[in-house]
Design a protein that fits this description.
heterodimer, A: about 280 residues, mainly alpha, 2 domains, two-stranded antiparallel ribbon, about 65% helix, B: about 350 residues, alpha+beta, Sulfite Oxidase, Chain A, domain 2, 5-stranded mixed β-sheet, 4-stranded antiparallel β-sheet, about 15% strand, elongated
Chain lengths: ~280, ~350
Amino acid sequence: MKMRTSSFGYLQRNSFIHRLNPLTKFAVLILLVILTVTLVSDIVSLSIFVFLLLGYIGAGINLRYAFGRLRRLIAFILLIAMVQLLFTSYGIILFYLIPPLAPGFGPFFPITITGIANAINLAFRLINIVLASALFVAITDPSRFVAALTSLRIPYRYGYTLVLALRLVPLFDKESNTVQAAQRARGIPVDQGIIRGFLRRVRFTFMPLLFSALGRIDALTLAMDGRGFGYAPTRTYLIFPNFVIKDWLIVCVSIFLTSLLLWYFLFVAPLPHIIG
Amino acid sequence: MNSSATSYYFTTRDLVTIAVLSALGGALSTFVGYLGLLLNTAIRTPFGAGQFISGLHVFWIILATGLIRKTGAATATGLLKGFVEFFTGSTHGIIVVLVSLIQGLIIDIGFFVIGKRDSLPFWSIIAGFAAASNVIVFQLFFFSGAPLIFLTLLIILAFSSGIIFGGYFGHATTHLVLESSVYRSTVTGPSLRSKGSIWRRLGPYRLSALIFLIVIAFGASLYAVFVWRPVLDPLSCEVVGQVSQPFGFSYFTYADQEITIEAELIGSVTHLPLQNYTGIPLVTILTDAQPLESATVLQVISSDGYSATFSLEDIFTDHEIILVVEDGLRLVAKNYPGWFWIQKVVSLVIT
């Protein structure tokens, strides 16, 4: 099946996960983040990681999409792991990164089992949060998410602001490219010199784009007011994502499982670890 | 017809302004990331310089606040910008919503304090704090246990960036926009360009509130970075300082050495009657750490920074000081008053 992609991360499919209410998916995302942040254990992290990969497969999303997201984060993941490896001084010392250089000088940077465990745990924390977020974005149509928010009694005027902003992003994205192309066509050397290039980019891309965008505000406001935006306290939707029994079931089971895991691992038994 | 201008706190125009600036912030976030890479290349470091442009993320919130001038505009812009970045595939996932929301909240609180005043120094300080807050949030999630110098450096970088790009650049751009015909200002009350000394215009109450805000924010930053210890595993603790074998342990490492004692907590406020406590004798753990001969003092530190100091000699002769499992690790010191019974113990420092 050919993948249909919107301007954002949403990948349109007809899977069971896609058909869930956006609020259900958001609740599961928040619960997963809570679990990831609270239960710091390599086994728990690995389990959540596998659960998320199954989520991608269940939603009919190619795993390359998930790993593509992570590729952009490699530097940050390495930074997190390095900080833990280099600066966790307690735990069983395996070796020193810098051996003694002279009597009384060194060794430095002990690499400990606890450091390795912390590095793996915190790197996995980032990976799991990013994968869970990317999965949510891939299976949730932002417009449906905003419509679902109104069932939480969030006024539609505010919800619509998010829809409006998301609709403007591709427009501004395109306009940003146009502005940069126009500057290049005029022979403005925005690529010359790192600091100078940086300042030129800010001056010659930010400003024209900002003023062009601000110039749309009055026209947009007039158009919205002209269509009676905000006239009534509520609005109707062509397609409204109802919260049905399967959504209640998933939310209740997720809350129950999360609470059970938190209670068990925080108050009853120690967190299982492979390392550390 | 629509009566949004009178019926709603945020008019349609305000909401469109918030949406446009959030969309711009979202659309340009990739571009901002690219600028960060450029700076990293310039100073020949793989990471870190990105914090120096963190002020550009705050810039949009400052601009929205400067144009709309209503309490809540910054929070709304921060939240919306966070969601735009989240839905457009931010590399940090859902955390970016929290980061952006907190930045908006800080700016709103700051502007609530200074009111509709046009003060570059105050705008810059507010933007600095907002930009620096991203380091604190990321520290809470991803940099537990990172060295203080590393975090301090990032906070200083982000704060400076906030001052330059959020405060100075944001202030100048707000003026530029308001002076142009491109955006019709609906700001009421004191003019953005009103004359007079900043200090006179600020007034004593707001000045006090501003100082209070700065002290609280500074204190909170210091607390988060230097004092508060994130708990990775509430039942684990470290033994460090003047010992031959510094190490970290989990309660369950010593579970087979549990003893039960009978103790009564007599504190200045709390009093718990005589009851049984089961836990690990502190002396067992300290023996494994092998304190150096020069060590004399044991400091027991809690996750919130609270600590109590014991004589090491007393500890080694008192077998009724134990660590028990009670909402993390709790020290039960039978022969000591209540303020020595520390909760959420994370560190044993021998000096």
